[in-house]
Design goal:
With 338 residues, the protein is an alpha/beta fold. The chain has one domain: Metallo-beta-lactamase, Chain A, CATH 3.60.15.10. It has 8 helices and 18 strands. A 9-stranded mixed β-sheet has the order 6-5-4-3-2-1-16-17-18, with helices on one face. Helix 2 crosses helix 4. The longest helix is centred in the middle third of the chain and has 14 residues. The radius of gyration is 19 Å and the shape is globular. The two termini are 27 Å apart.
Length: 338
């Protein structure tokens, strides 16, 4: 019989045995795209998106460096959240450099046109002959040692709350929907990762109206510990009802110097009640001094940088730490009191 991870952690502490390995999440700097590498205590890995193409393989090299730092020899799962250049177009260069076993997506590209067709063709070429999983809302991704619940996919969000008691969201009546988003952003695969008491949410580039569908009129997601800012921190995502419902302790923004990190979204996230810290992959030039966090919490303060990462390490009791790969600064967040 397999013991729950939280119980294993408590037993190891009680009897003086070495604590189990933490969950590790590397937020790789791909200059305003996404490349989030998850490594579970069971030794399995999932890479969420692969950044941009070109730049002499810059993003692929940064992802491979993070994977090797994590002790990986392969990536078990690659999750494509949606078919935009900053998420999918770096995959061919990555696949040439590092083995990937299984590919996960929401099905075919919903956009048309020459660029969309090119991304689709390149993706199809990479995944040919590999294991392939198409996910829909409510599915579970079989990543060992953690629970990964798909809460949004291909424009649909979960009907059934993931929490025992879905509470009404008082911010919903105060917020108007935006114009309908016909792009792949609104079709993003979003997931909730649970490791014991620790909860992490990544909604990729999900936009305003789909966010509202998840938390209005009731909050289907519950509260979380760490939130990856939606859509790199732009104002057409990161709605007040979403942030208010999630009440994250920490937010991570995978923005670039000139992409994401918009002042309006930054202010919503930073002003969320109960938020202890916001960490950024880049200093936002649009945000200026007023709308950026202290340099200590920014992985890359300069526009032209070496691509430093942020790393999250979580324990099943709900405690976690965040480390800045540039300066080694590390902050611990203790488990919440019951």
């Amino acid at each position: 019989m397999r013991l729950p991870v939280a119980l294993m952690f408590l037993l190891s502490v009680a009897f003086g045995a070495p604590a189990p390995k933490p969950l590790e999440i590397y937020f790789v700097d791909v200059e305003g795209g996404q490349a989030t590498l998850i490594v579970t205590p069971a030794g399995e890995s999932m890479l969420v998106d692969a950044g941009w193409p070109g730049h002499d393989g810059r993003d692929a090299a940064r992802i491979v460096a993070a994977a090797k730092l994590a002790g990986l020899k392969r990536i078990d799962y690659f999750l494509l959240t949606h078919y935009h250049a900053d998420h999918v177009a770096g995959l061919p260069q990555l696949a040439e450099r590092f083995p990937i076993v299984t590919f996960i997506d929401h099905g075919p590209n919903t956009e048309t046109g020459k660029q969309a067709e090119r991304f689709s063709a390149e993706y199809a070429k990479v995944i040919a002959g590999h294991k392939h999983i198409v996910v829909k809302r409510g599915d579970t991704i079989p990543l060992g040692g953690v629970s990964v619940k798909v809460v949004a996919a291909r424009g649909a969000v979960i009907d059934t709350p993931v929490v025992d008691m879905a509470r009404p969201n008082p911010l919903c009546p105060l917020t108007k929907p935006l114009a309908e988003d016909p792009t792949e952003n609104a079709r993003s695969v979003g997931f909730l990762l649970t490791f014991g008491k620790f909860r992490f949410l990544d909604l990729a580039d999900l936009t305003w109206n789909k966010e509202l569908d998840l938390v209005c009129p009731v909050n289907k997601l519950g509260t979380i510990d760490v939130f990856l800012a939606s859509h790199h921190g732009v104002r057409i995502s990161n709605s007040p009802p979403l942030l208010g419902a999630l009440a994250p302790r920490v937010a991570i923004m995978n923005n670039g110097a000139r992409k994401g990190g918009e002042p309006e979204a930054w202010q919503v996230i930073r002003g969320t009640a109960g938020l202890e810290d916001l960490w950024q992959l880049h200093y936002s030039l649009a945000g200026g001094e007023k709308n950026n966090v202290p340099e200590l919490l920014i992985a890359n303060p300069q526009e032209h940088c070496q691509g430093h990462w942020l790393k999250l390490s979580a324990r099943p009791n709900g405690s976690f730490t965040v480390t800045n790969g540039r300066n080694g600064y590390r902050k611990a967040y203790p488990a919440k009191k019951s």
